[in-house]
Amino acid sequence: MLKAGAVKALGAMSGTSLDGVDAAVIETDGTEILSFGEAAFRPYTTEETAILRAALGKWQGDALVAAAEVVETAHCEILEGFADVDLIGFHGQTVAHEPRGRGTLQIGDGGLLAAALEKPVVWDFRSADVKLGGEGAPLAPFYHFALAKFIGATEPVAFLNLGGVGNITWVDPDYDEPEEEGALLSFDTGPANAPVNDLMTARLGLSHDEDGALAAQGNVDDDIVANFLEHRYFYRLPPKSLDRDQFKGLSDAVADLSDADAAATLTACSVMAVVQGLQYCPTEPTKMLVCGGGRKNATLMKMLQAAMDCEVLPVEDVGLDGDMLEAQAFAYLAVRVARGLPTSCPSTTGVKAAVGGGTVSTPPKG
Ligand SMILES: Nc1ncnc2c1ncn2[C@@H]1O[C@H](COP(=O)(O)OP(=O)(O)OP(=O)(O)O)[C@@H](O)[C@H]1O
Ligand SMILES: CC(=O)N[C@H]1[C@@H]2OC[C@@H](O2)[C@@H](O)[C@@H]1O[C@H](C)C(=O)O
C-alpha cells in the first residue's frame, strides 16, 4: 500500500530509438508535480541494441525472450542506483504496436523487477487502454497536463516529443482534471528522427545527423514532401498512434537524392507531419514546447519555427528537462495507477472512457 500524500516515484523509459534507458525521479501525489529529483541514462551496448532490434515486430519466440532479458538487466542496473524511492514506473521496450490488430507489446517483466529491486513496480501501462478500444499511446499527455500547470501556463500550450516517432499534446491548463472533455488532445504526429537516423546509418554509418548539420547543407525536395503528406495516416482524425517502423519505406523515396538533400528532405517530412497535425488541435497553441532528442537538431527546430506562427522552444526554456520528460511521465503515471486515477481518456488515446492502465507488482514478502 502506497503511503498517503506526495511520494517519490522513479520512472524508466526505453524509447523507440533503442539507444538506452532513461530514469528519473519526481515527487508527486499523482495530481500535482511537487519537485524533480535525480536522473540517469544507461546506454545499450551495440550488441544489446542488435538484440532489441531483432525483436521488433515479433509477438513471440526466442528473439523476444533474449530482448526481454536485455531490457530487464539494463533496467535493474540503472534502477538499483536510486535510493529512497517509494515506487517505480517501468515502461519497458515497445517491440510491436498494432492497437487495432494484435494489440501492443512492451517487453520486460515488472514482477521480476519488483522482486530484484524490492520496490513496488507499475508496468504494462498500455494494454488496458487498447482492450477498451484505445490506441494505447501516447500516454505522456496526462503528465503534460500536470506540467502545463507546473510551469504556470494560463493559455493553451503544446508539448511536442521528437523521438524516433513524434507525438503532440495540446493542453488547455484552465481545466481542473486532464480527463475533462476539452482539456487535452494528443496523437502521434508521424515519424520524427527515425527516417534521418536510418539514412545516416545506411549511407554514412552514423547514428544520426548531429545538430542537423548535414540537413542544413541540403535542399528540400518539395515533391517528395508533398507525396509523403498524402499518406492516409495524415488524414485520420486523432487520437491516433504509430508503430515505430510504419514509415520505413520513406528512405526509398529519397534514394536518388544526394546525402545532404536526402537529409534535408526527410527532416522536412518530419516537420511537415507536425504542421499537418496542428490543424486538428482545437486552437493554435501559444507555445510549442519541444522535448526528445529532435530538439537538439538545429535544422529541424529552424524548419519547425519557420512553418509555424507560435513560438517553438525546447522545454529547457521553461525550466524542464527534455531528455528525461518521458521517464518522469512514467513515474507520474505509476503514482496515478497506484492511486486508482486514470492515465488516458477519449481525447488522448481514443479509449471509450477514462482508464487507469497498468499492473502493480509488489516484491515478495520475507
Ligand atoms: N545532438 C543531436 N543532433 C541531432 N539529433 C539528435 C541529437 N541528439 C539526439 N538526436 C536525435 O534524437 C534521437 C533520440 O531521441 P529520444 O531519446 O527522444 O528518442 P526515444 O525516446 O528513444 O524515442 P521515442 O520518444 O519515440 O520513444 C536520436 O536517435 C537522434 O536522432
Ligand atoms: C507504442 C509506443 O511505445 N509508442 C511510443 C512511441 O514513441 C513516441 C510515440 O511513439 C508515443 O506514442 C509513445 O511513447 C510516448 C512515451 C507516450 O506514450 O507518450
Automatic annotation (TrEMBL):
An annotated Gene Ontology molecular function: kinase activity
Gene3D superfamilies from the UniProt entry: 3.30.420.40
UniProt keyword list: ATP-binding, Carbohydrate metabolism, Kinase, Nucleotide-binding, Transferase
SUPFAM superfamilies referenced in this protein's UniProt entry, alphabetically: Actin-like ATPase domain (SSF53067)
Pathway of action: Cell wall biogenesis; peptidoglycan recycling; Amino-sugar metabolism; 1,6-anhydro-N-acetylmuramate degradation
Stored Pfam families: AnmK
Recorded family membership: Belongs to the anhydro-N-acetylmuramic acid kinase family.
Protein name, entry field: Anhydro-N-acetylmuramic acid kinase
Organism listed in the record: Marivivens donghaensis
Gene that this polypeptide is encoded by: anmK
